[in-house]
């Protein structure tokens, strides 16, 4: 009987810290998700890892950048979160901020020297995808490669054209985007615009090519 009680006590002594850690993990993630910079900072001071990864493969900085919480992003970066860490899909925090149109977060991460030119999909392509012209302009001002493309050859101009984002297309063309580039299927940005019935964009791109 004594041996059994001793074993139960030993198991409990191990289980209790584990349960407490699990609760802390959940509370930390929740603080980030709801955009509470104060609570996030408190959890960091208690020893939570600023590079904590949630079940979906996102770090807490990814969650904050995607959610548009600038104050939480600042707290995590100040706590030494890895600003260039990729998630399971190969996305960095600045890419998710660019996709979501969170200009202030993009600007802050740029000030911390977040990488924007690298193989694969880039913040510029992500910003162009949803037509976030101001972010596209900001990234270009910070020397983003305008014609960068992942292995499938898709450029920022193609994504902007496909989405029907006329102002973003105009900006990219004005800044020197190469409208003659083709993706791995042989389609140009004008082709993508035509396929998505953005005929005004297709015409604009075709006219730009003729003036080259």
Quick structural summary:
This protein is 60% helix and 0% strand. It has 212 residues and is mainly alpha-helical.
Q: What can you tell me about this protein's structure?
A:
This protein has 212 residues and is mainly alpha-helical. The protein is elongated. The chain contains twelve helices and no strands. The chain has a domain at 1-84: Serine Threonine Protein Phosphatase 5, Tetratricopeptide repeat, CATH 1.25.40. The chain starts with a helix and ends with a helix. It has helices at residues 2-33, 37-45, 60-67, 70-78, 93-100, 103-111, 123-129, 133-141, 156-163, 166-174, 189-195, 199-210. Helix 5 packs parallel to helix 7 (123-129) and helix 11 (189-195) runs antiparallel to helix 12 (199-210).
Total number of helices: 12
Mean pLDDT: 91
At the first level of CATH, the class of the domain at 1-84 is: Mainly Alpha
The H-and-E topology, N to C, reads as: HHHHHHHHHHHH
Shape: elongated
> End-to-end span in angstroms?
90 Å
Total strands: the figure is 0
Strand content: under 5%
Structural class per helix/strand content? mainly alpha
Helical residues, percent: 55-70%
Query: Can you tell me the CATH topology of the domain at 1-84?
Result: Serine Threonine Protein Phosphatase 5, Tetratricopeptide repeat
